[in-house]
Amino acid sequence: MPDAAQSKLRLVVLFGGASAEHDISCITAAHVLAAADRSRYELVPVGITRDGTWVAPTTALAALAADEPLGNSLAPEGPAVEPLTVLRGEPGEHTVVLPLLHGPHGEDGTIQGMLELFGLAYVGSGVLGSALCMDKAMAKNAAAYLGIPQCRWIEHRDGFDDEKQTITNTVDTLGLPVFVKPANMGSSVGITKAHDEAELAVALQTALAYDDVLVIEEGITAREIEVAVLGNSSPEASLPGEILPGAEFYDYEDKYVTGNAALQIPAELPAEAVDEVRELAVRSYRALRCQGLARVDFFYEESYRGGPGRGWLLNEINTIPGFTPASMYPKMWEASGLKYSALIDRLVSLAQEVHAKRSAFSTAR
Hints:
365 residues; alpha+beta; Rossmann fold; 3 domains; 6-stranded antiparallel beta sheet; 5-stranded mixed beta sheet; 12 helices
């Protein structure tokens, strides 16, 4: 029988992971654990190493037990644990899993599928929404089918498409410069801006080190605007924020290393444009089957080829956005009146809501 301390809801925080975004996940988890209400939750950090081993993170667990600061990042180091055992806990305990795993093997539907099979409540989108939004190429196909505006782009699939032909098609169809991105990656990992054909050839190889499906987008002159969305069947959109890159584009170094990028929250936009982007963010969120939370990223193009711009263009949707001190998602909600700790509470509540609904579905014929 669980004691009084164990009667609190177990909040299992998964971090690390076998992904190029491993380090960002470790930072995100430290700040979420620091902000979570310890009187409400039994916090259970679980680390996943780069090789996929699940561990009980010794340093983080000791800090939580002693009510000491966790630092800026968690280390997924400690004795190995069995996933199902650590996720479910003891009989009678109630658990919600917060999978703070950015990128492949965490944000792409894989961990969500495992949690579904284990019968556990978890924060964020389900298997389909996670997988769809993670794969930028499939997300763009779905958005195009549903009439959501985007910039022009083409897809390259390694083993299916000839690289030389892709280069020719890119120049003929999109012109230069272009951005080359791995379809299944985040945090700007593997992204290159190519200004000529030689750079494009190198950019393809750079991106192919991370994925076998690539997205090549036209280079446009536009403002980078983001919106935080929260909810299940009735999602809400935050005030928008703007990224002001400190480099040629908002790359990994600009995001996490140099700190030269500036964040403008709320973005300085006309009231009509704010209403438009918030509405489009919710529409995109619903269209791509998101639940719980997502950060919806847009381009705001005010002029195009010497004439009026195309306005709002969907860039991508991140179903497990960063929660570091520099991350836009919690900052936009804070600017909209929802504090960090209350945001965590809302995410947990939304996870329980979805789990209760799915658990009630009939398995009878």
